[in-house]
Design brief:
The chain is α+β, with helices and mostly antiparallel strands. It has helices spanning about 20-35, 40-50, 55-65, 75-85, 90, 145-155, and strands spanning about 1-5, 10-15, 95-105, 110-120, 120-130, 135-145. A four-stranded antiparallel beta sheet has the order 3-4-5-6, with helices on one face. A two-stranded antiparallel ribbon has the order 1-2. Helix 2 (about 40-50) packs antiparallel against helix 3 (about 55-65) and helix 3 (about 55-65) runs antiparallel to helix 4.
């Protein structure tokens, strides 16, 4: 028997008919709990925990937080193909991730940029989250390998304060 307490405080008791029904309900409840998280940081933590085991699933689950992303399914499939291509033969070993920056644009919109460390080279993952009401959802996700270009550009003389001694 499963006791469910609804958001309005009412209790509902449910008795399962068979093991298959029990497992199905448990899988649904687990997936709802996994991505009905209270903060963008928890969504990112869940993403990277899954990413270590299955990069494509991590991306798919992250996009599942926003029902509107169904409209861009082909683009999501391309991203999944890209991260699934980061194999040991292509990128070397995965060593983890580090926060580059976090930018809050408003109470309901935030960006996180992460350095994802592979043996061959770093990749940047950019997560944008939006909170239209009570729940944070993925607004967009992108990845690139342009960090080297940006670091080199930032080191140019016209960006430096040459008046300092």
């Amino acid at each position: 028997m499963l006791k469910i307490i609804l958001s309005n405080g009412k209790e509902v008791n449910y008795t399962f008919k068979n093991m298959r029904e029990t497992l199905t309900v448990l899988m649904i409840l687990t997936s709802i709990n996994l991505f009905a998280q209270s903060s963008p940081q928890k969504l990112i933590d869940t993403f990277f925990a899954t990413y270590e085991k299955d990069a494509g699933k991590a991306v798919k689950d992250l996009y599942a937080t926003n029902r509107w992303t169904e409209r861009i399914k082909d683009d999501i499939d391309k991203i999944i193909g890209t991260v699934n291509g980061f194999t040991d033969n292509y990128m070397g070993q995965y060593y983890g991730h580090e926060l580059i920056t976090k930018k809050k644009f408003a109470e309901s919109f935030i960006l996180y940029s992460y350095l994802v460390k592979y043996e061959r080279q770093p990749i940047r993952f950019i997560f944008k989250f939006y909170k239209p009401n009570e729940e944070w959802v993925l607004f967009s996700y992108a990845l690139d390998d342009k960090l080297d270009d940006e670091i080199q550009e930032a080191a140019k003389l016209y960006y430096l304060d040459l008046d300092k001694e």
